[in-house]
Design brief:
Layout (H helix, E strand, L loop, with lengths): L1 H5 L5 H14 L6 H12 L21 E11 L3 E4 L4 E10 L4 E7 L3 H4 L7 E11 L4 E3 L5 E5 L26 E11 L3 E5 L2 E11 L4 E7 L1 H7 L6 E10 L2 E4 L4 E4 L25 E19 L5 E2 L13 E13 L2 E8 H8 L7 H12 L3 E10 L5 E8 L2
Helix pairs in contact: 2-3
């Protein structure tokens, strides 16, 4: 057992701490078992047997158990599946050696291992099953083993991924690229139906010092995006710029906490009182005096009419709607009392709302509980419709 082997090197408390740190490094995407595997790999406990015969991918035969030394070209986003017999998760990894490329399919708990892989890693495959020949598809079994190893001179013959890494200001429309940036803002998770299946979308705003761009993260990538916090470093693999917005679908991947991201330290955000807050971002430590209301509003892009319920067609005939989530509050600190508003992800985080929740009802149920709470916000000030100062919270920090 991995845990018993690791306890030869770690004390029980130190091992628990190492597992938590490894899970935090991957933004909570690793199970305990997957974190133990990563620690075991790093400690050198999992070694390939000396007598394994590694074969070229081109030699694969139907039904064969194959072992090969390959390079990782791409890791696709995990997917969930459900059949009459079973349900679970799967993830595809595209690999290649000097003879051929192949997709390796990982199932359920092995999917967590995929989240630790990076593009161009050298990977040892042991006893993977040859499922399909053209194009070559390999499946992991209970007896299969996958291990990342350090590249040697001999691995120079392995092909490398052709997807470039670009700064945000270098991206061109329709071109696939990897990008590394920090999370500047995120919107709440949205659920939708498409061809009888449930899908998910999360939009995040990225900044790398050269430009700011919104990215649409779909399905499992959307769930991963929701676990990020403002200021976190993130890598998007296989992102495509479409109509001025990045898209990360099933063929791309969101990677939290990328190693050697080169983004530098997060800029120090000043702390201010509510009275001193102006149009620039600052951290404020405030008391919630009152929760006024909260709503999810749908607005027609054509005529501007608003409705708490989403309509298929507006009274003006348009089918184009945008949605806005807000929570209206009264906030105070030692400098004074002001009206405040939280939008989208900040409102959802403050209320602790889940997808599909009636925010107005939730705000009424939690009104007494939230009144008197102290919260730390990333915020700025603007002039409201009445001309009075209004505090706009961009993110709930604590």
């Amino acid at each position: 057992m991995l845990k018993e082997r690791l306890l030869e090197r770690f004390s029980p408390d130190a091992l628990d701490d190492a597992v938590r740190q490894k899970q935090d490094q991957f933004a909570g995407l690793l199970t305990e078992e997957a974190a133990l595997r990563v620690l075991a790999h790093e400690a050198g406990f999992i070694q390939p047997p000396d007598d394994v015969a590694y074969a070229p991918l081109q030699s694969a035969q139907p039904g064969q158990l194959l072992s090969a030394r390959v390079r990782v070209l791409a890791v696709f986003a995990p997917k969930r599946f459900a059949t009459a017999e079973r349900s679970g998760r799967l993830c595809k990894i595209r690999v290649a050696d000097s003879s051929l490329s192949a997709d390796v399919v990982l199932w359920n708990s092995d999917v967590d291992f995929a989240s630790t892989l990076c593009r161009n890693d050298v990977l040892l495959l042991k006893d993977v099953s040859v499922k399909v020949l053209q194009p070559l598809e390999l499946h992991c079994r209970l007896s299969s083993e996958l291990r990342v190893v350090s590249a040697t001179d001999a691995d120079a013959a392995l092909p490398t991924a052709s997807v470039p890494q670009r700064r945000l200001d270098e991206l061109s429309e329709g071109t696939e690229a990897d990008v590394v940036a920090r999370l500047a803002e995120k919107q709440p998770l949205k659920e939708f139906q498409r061809q009888g299946k449930t899908g998910y979308l999360s939009k995040i705003k990225l900044s790398d010092g050269t430009a700011d761009l919104w990215a649409a993260c779909w399905d499992e990538n959307a769930h991963a995006a929701q676990k990020l916090s403002v200021g976190d470093a993130v890598k998007l693999e296989g992102a495509v710029l479409k109509n001025g917005e990045l898209s990360v679908s099933w063929s791309g991947r969101l990677c939290p906490a990328p190693v050697d991201h080169g983004l530098g330290a997060v800029a120090e955000t000043p702390c201010k009182s509510l009275a001193d807050l102006d149009g620039s971002d600052a951290v404020v430590d405030v008391r919630v005096d009152k929760v006024v209301d909260a709503q999810r509003v749908h607005k027609c892009r054509s005529c501007g009419s608003k409705s708490p319920e989403k309509k298929a067609v507006c009274v003006c005939g348009s089918e184009d709607f945008s949605s806005l989530t807000y929570a209206s509050l009264e906030l105070s600190d030692a400098s004074g009392r002001f009206r405040g508003v939280l939008f989208d992800a900040a409102a959802v985080a403050f209320l602790g709302a889940k997808a599909g929740t009636d925010l107005n009802l939730l705000s009424q149920l939690k009104r007494d509980y939230l009144a008197g709470k102290n919260v730390k916000l990333l915020a700025y000030a603007k002039s409201g419709r009445t001309g009075q100062k209004e505090i706009v919270g961009k993110a709930v920090l604590s």
